[in-house]
């Protein structure tokens, strides 16, 4: 049993805590700050996850946890109790984005979230240098003799800082960054900064720095590797551009972007995969002072932070893809039911429970993608593409999205 103290946690700790608590929840019964003991049943674990999400205040995780709990029969009373709210009405209001969502599917929830992100223009999330360093340390030779383009970045951003500071060590031939002028912003034009063997120069772009503009598209076409955190709400279009230009890339995107149309087929077909780090929990970002999400936290300097569930997406080889999952579970029919609406696959609710000895199709949580070694497993499909409904069901119970895999034949 584990007790999580009732303490307000710094943003930087949240992702790690979310990840390790998730592992604890999966391994044993758990007592959280409410001091309620959640049994190690599926329902108990779902409610425990929800309490963890609320405790660490990562709204992305909270929304996901609430949606899952609701889809699996948790009442607003249950959620109010865990959230320490006085009534089911306040729980429904507090998670207002989920109001009236009794029958909301994960797909609809994702679309609603995307639309909301667009409306709020909450694309300006600043990546921390430490997160950039952590991921890019896994590509020691990917930039040697290469030109690198940062197409959604200015020289004050973490990506420019990283490559500028490591230009010689990584062996870059050139580094280019193009900034973007938000609609209605005071700055009249965007900037392009270039560092090469002659030094660094900065000049104006003709337009606003839109990655779809001719000028930036020309820079994309000329670059060897594209690295950035692009606007979350335009992730699909951004990936489409990179694929169109047949570019190597390392980019950040929402954790659910993997299964979005236009992106999923690339993952399924092994043309793009998840990077080495940030494969669990939320990553903290600095947001502009006019950002007013319910999930904002302030640091000592008054800066606003939010935690967002993101992943690195890349088509460059990375060590993580050659590290097979250690498998200890054995297949036992009573522990692995098949799906009502896709009977050729069995349900494996946790990545750690993938049976070593089952040769058929297995449905696993999306978190599997962060552990996928293509020499160990092949990806068959994604629950929402394999059935015409909104996902798999077991004994009438709707499940969150599943990736269907099977052991690779060597
Ligand atoms: C998620 S933020 C990340 C910012 C920066 N890359 C970083 O990692 O700190 C996405 C950035 O893309 C910029 N942006 C939004 N729409 C864009 C577009 N159409 N073309 C290029 N950049 C865009 C925004 O101004 C914002 O700064």
How would you characterize the overall build of this protein?
The chain is of the alpha+beta class and 410 residues long. It folds into three domains: 11-104, no CATH class; 129-320, Rossmann fold; 323-407, no CATH class. The protein has 13 helices and 19 strands. An eight-stranded mixed β-sheet has the order 6-5-4-3-7-8-13-9, with helices on both faces. The longest helix has 17 residues, at 11-27. It is globular, with a radius of gyration of 22 Å. It starts with 10 loop residues before the first helix and ends with a strand. Mean pLDDT is 82; it is low at 1-12, 96-104 and 116-120. It binds S-adenosylmethionine. S-adenosylmethionine binds at residues 123-127, 152-153, 157-159, 180, 182, 209-211, 228-232, 234.
Annotate the secondary structure layout.
Elements: H1 11-27, E1 30-31, E2 37-38, H2 42-56, H3 59-71, H4 76-83, H5 88-94, H6 106-119, H7 129-136, E3 147-150, H8 158-165, H9 167-170, E4 174-178, E5 191-196, E6 199-204, H10 214-222, E7 225-228, H11 235-244, E8 248-254, H12 264-268, E9 273-274, E10 283-287, E11 297-298, E12 304-308, E13 310-314, E14 345-347, E15 361-365, E16 377-382, H13 383-386, E17 393-394, E18 397-398, E19 402-407
Parallel strand pairs: 3-4, 3-7, 7-8, 14-15
Antiparallel strand pairs: 1-2, 4-5, 5-6, 8-13, 9-13, 10-12, 11-12, 15-19, 16-19, 17-18
Helix pairs in contact: 1-2, 2-3, 2-4, 4-5, 7-8
The protein binds S-adenosylmethionine (SAM).
S-adenosylmethionine (SAM) binds at residues 123-127, 152-153, 157-159, 180, 182, 209-211, 228-232, 234.
């Amino acid at each position: 049993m584990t007790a999580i103290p009732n303490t307000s946690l710094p943003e930087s700790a949240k992702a790690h805590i979310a990840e390790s608590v998730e592992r604890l929840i999966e391994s044993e019964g758990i007592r959280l700050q409410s001091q309620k003991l959640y049994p190690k049943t599926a329902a108990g674990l779902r409610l425990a996850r929800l309490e963890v999400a609320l405790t660490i205040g990562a709204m992305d995780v909270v929304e996901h946890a609430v949606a899952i709990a609701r889809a699996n029969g948790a009442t607003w009373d249950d959620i109010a109790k865990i959230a320490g709210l006085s009534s089911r009405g306040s729980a429904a209001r507090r998670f207002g984005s989920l109001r009236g969502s009794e029958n909301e599917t994960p797909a609809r929830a994702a679309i609603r979230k995307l639309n909301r992100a667009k409306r709020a223009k909450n694309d300006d999330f600043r990546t921390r240098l430490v997160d950039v360093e952590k991921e890019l340390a896994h590509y020691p030779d990917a930039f040697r003799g290469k030109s690198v383009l940062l197409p959604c970045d200015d020289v004050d951003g973490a990506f420019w800082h990283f490559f500028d500071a490591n230009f010689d060590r990584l062996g870059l031939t050139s580094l280019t960054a193009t900034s973007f002028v938000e609609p209605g912003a005071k700055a009249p034009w965007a900037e392009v900064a270039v560092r090469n063997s002659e030094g660094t120069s900065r000049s104006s772009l003709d337009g606003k720095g839109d990655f779809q503009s001719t000028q930036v598209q020309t820079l994309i076409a000329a670059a060897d590797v594209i690295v950035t955190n692009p606007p979350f709400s335009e992730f699909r279009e951004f990936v489409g551009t990179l694929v169109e230009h047949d570019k190597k890339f390392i980019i950040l995107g929402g954790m659910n972007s993997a299964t979005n149309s236009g992106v999923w087929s690339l993952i399924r077909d092994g043309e793009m995969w998840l990077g080495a780090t940030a494969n669990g929990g939320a990553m903290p970002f600095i947001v502009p002072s006019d950002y007013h999400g319910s999930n904002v936290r302030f640091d000592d300097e008054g800066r606003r932070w939010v935690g967002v569930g993101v992943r690195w997406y890349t088509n460059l080889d990375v060590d993580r893809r050659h590290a097979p999952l250690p498998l200890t579970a054995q297949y036992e029919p009573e522990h692995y039911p098949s799906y009502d609406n896709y009977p050729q696959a069995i349900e494996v609710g946790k990545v750690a429970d993938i049976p070593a000895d089952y040769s058929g199709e297995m449905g696993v949580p999306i978190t599997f993608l962060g552990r996928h070694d293509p020499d160990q497993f092949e990806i068959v499909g994604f629950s929402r593409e394999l059935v015409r409904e909104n996902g798999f069901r077991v004994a009438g119970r709707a499940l969150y999205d599943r990736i269907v895999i099977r052991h690779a034949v060597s």
